[in-house]
Structures are given as C-alpha cells and as structure tokens.
Design brief:
The chain is mainly alpha-helical. The protein is 58% helix and 9% strand. It has a 3-stranded antiparallel β-sheet with strand order 1-3-2, covered by helices on one side.
C-alpha cells in the first residue's frame, strides 16, 4: 500500500514540475491547444512502456511491423482491456492499411500480436478477431525475453523504463508466474500419454 502512495506522490510531483516548466517555457499557450486528460474527452489509459513494446513487436515482425496495430487497439480501448471489433475495415484503415487487401494485412498483424502474447482473441460476428483482450504489455515483454525473442539492449531499456514508472514490482510478479507456467509445462511434457500408460 505504501508503494502505491509513493507512486501517486511521485506522479503528482512530476506533474507539478512539468506545470512549472510549462509556465516558464509556454506561458501564453492557449488552453484549447493543450491536451489535459482530466478535462478533454476521448482518452484512454495506455501503459508507459508501450513505446518500447512496439519496438520489440516490430523487431519480431520481419518487415511486417505490427506495433502500430497494437497502438491502434489501445487507442480504441474504453479504459478497459476488452475491445470489441465489429468492423475490421475501420481498424485496418486506422492502422494505415488501405486497398483490397487491407483487412487481410491487418489480420496477419493481429495474428503476430496474438503469437507474441500482446492480445488474446475470441471469434464473433465479425470474424476471428471480434473480441480482443489487451494483455499486459509488460507480461508480454517478459514472455518475449524468456522465449529468446528480445535482445539485451532493448530489454535493458524496457527494464529501466519499468523501474522509472514504478512497474518493476509487477515485472518480478510476472517472472514468478512465468516460472510456474514453465514448471507446469515441463511436468505435463514428461507425463506418459494414455496410450503409453496402457
């Protein structure tokens, strides 16, 4: 609980410092040109590690970067991790895909995001990606690292940023969960099949 209070106090101090700097450097900026989450409409909450997650995704996408597709999903999230996609054409166009194959291109990128554990999906009326659950990108980054899919320099920047935003405790918890999953998978792999047992 103390960590939560410290993080809140730290964010307030950061916001106060930022406002002080804004008063010095941009004193006459019209308020209508400034984005403020608490007063402007049309916002969602995005993890602060998402830019580094996008880099990690794009590094694994082999010339077909899927990071922007993830960002578009987060931008559509209603401050809740479940996104319902009723019209894939809209999501494909927002991700920058146009033309006859736009939705097919978008679907391939969505599969990449799912394979990298940044999203989980269930089919519905609009197809394979009707229901999309936005996974914790920090968990996906740890999974990528444990799977050998992330180089040291990028992982180092991710960890530094996680520490900077107060998310390192979460990273440690994710690591424990991954170890439990790996142990369970290893135990399941050595279990004889019903045919072998007979």
């Amino acid at each position: 609980m103390a960590n939560g209070k410290q993080a809140t106090a730290r964010r307030m101090k950061m916001a106060e410092r930022a406002q002080q700097q804004m008063d010095i450097h941009f004193p006459s900026m019209a308020e209508s040109w400034v984005w403020r989450r608490k007063t402007n409409d049309g916002y969602t909450t995005i993890p602060r590690t998402i830019p580094i997650a996008i880099q990690a995704i794009n590094a694994q996408s082999k010339g077909q970067p899927a990071g922007h597709v993830l960002f578009c999903l987060w931008a559509r999230a209603p401050d809740h991790p479940l996104v319902t996609i009723e019209n894939p054409v809209i999501f494909a166009s927002e991700a920058g895909f146009i033309g006859e194959r736009a939705v097919d291109t978008w679907r391939r990128r969505m599969k990449q995001l799912r394979d990298l554990h940044f999203i989980a999906t269930k089919p519905g009326a609009s197809g394979e990606f009707h229901y999309v659950l936005l996974m914790n990108p920090n968990a996906a980054m740890e999974w990528m690292r444990a799977s050998g899919l992330m180089q040291d320099p990028l992982y180092s920047r991710f960890i530094e940023r996680a520490v900077d935003v107060g998310a390192f405790g979460e990273i440690e918890s994710i690591r424990k969960d991954l170890k439990v999953q790996q142990t369970a998978a290893a135990a399941a792999a050595i279990q004889p099949s019903p045919i072998e047992a007979a």
